[in-house]
Amino acid sequence: MDLDVFVSTHRPEWDRLEALLRRQRRLTGAEADELVSLYQRAATHLSVIRSSAPDPQLTGWLSQLVARARSAVTGTRRASWRDVTRFLTEGFPAAVYRSRRWWIPTALISIAVGAILGWWIGTHPEVQASIAAPSQLRSLTRPGGEYETYYSSHPAAAFAAQVWTNNAQAAALCLVLGIFLGLPVLWVLFENMLNLGVGIGLMSSAGRLDTFLGLVLPHGLLELTAVFVAAGTGLRLGWTVIDPGPRTRRTALAEEGRGALGMAIGLALVLFVSGAIEGFVTPSGLPTWARIGIGVLAELAFLTYVYVLGGRAVRAGGTGDVEADERSATVPTAA
Q1: Phi, psi values for residue 71, rounded to 5°
Q2: Gap between the Cα atoms of 106 and 307, Å rounded
């Protein structure tokens, strides 16, 4: 394509579009229709230039013009409480529900790995000796030891905030790093399961596994579920890089990436709840059965939320992606 000829042919249309944009508040009906038509044509022109004769200066200027025109045509949309409600009742649960074929296997495999590590550490004294000295191990596992006092070593509110921040960072890492073929996600998962396995192994070797589970389960059920959801979503994003399916890789990554961003916001709220349980319920004086019961109820509430609201939203056509009118416009590639 001869870029100079193309520009000289269509430049009057671009200039006219720019002139209409300067006085968009005072347009007549016919001029408003003309602005829409010119915007659509300019978007097509931009696509042609990008694919056939990319010129950085022209592409940059025309991109700004098309963006201004799109804003004028579609209007500026502000978030409202209705958007928040839609996200919490449709968008987030739909995204989690759609990812269940990734995060459920991730959860089952991870729990199995954690259990195997716990058994290996608990039944092999030489492995325990490689972790810490005998005196340090006794300090960790004895009644009133560090495993128990960890949950009451700081004021509840500050501890809950710290836990929430740490877990939210781990979930965000799983979501963000999934783009690298999911490999960093596997490392984050392994670290989590290794920490859990060490605790299970050391406390079981000291005959205090019931105490350890009584401390971990109240908050750990919901907390680990959120991490597994984030990890499964990250792995799904990594697989999209390898196999985008019938979509182009760019389109697939954009759709899955937007879903992952929404997932990060939703999981931050879930982890806030688990952090509150860890900060206020786990170190409380409630009986073990009551603390575990609260954790089980929180876990069941989340799963019910995902499968009832998320399943309903998916069956209605929801994907967890943003609304169609909020996505970037897809322009044709032919003049």
Answers
A1: -65, -40
A2: 18
Residue type, 21: L
pLDDT digits (tens, 9 = 90+) for 232-264: 988 888 888 888 878 777 777 777 777 777 788
Are 27 and 20 contacting, i.e. CB atoms less than 8 angstroms apart?
yes
pTM for the model stands at 0.70
Residue carrying structure tokens 């230039």:
49
Provide Rg for the chain, Cα atoms: 27
- The three-state (H, E, C) secondary structure of 248-308, written as one string: CHHHHHHHHHHHHHHHHHHHHHHHHHHHHHHHHHCCCCCCHHHHHHHHHHHHHHHHHHHHH
Q: Using CA atoms, how far apart are residues 116 and 104, in angstroms rounded to an integer? A: 18
Please give the Cα distance from 105 to 108 (Å, whole number).
5
How many CA atoms are closer than 13 Å to the CA of 231, on its beta-carbon side? Answer: 27
Residue 174 near residue 233 (C-beta atoms within 8 A)? yes
Map tokens 């322009």 to a residue. 331
Identify whether the C-beta of residue 93 lies closer than 8 Å to the C-beta of residue 305. yes
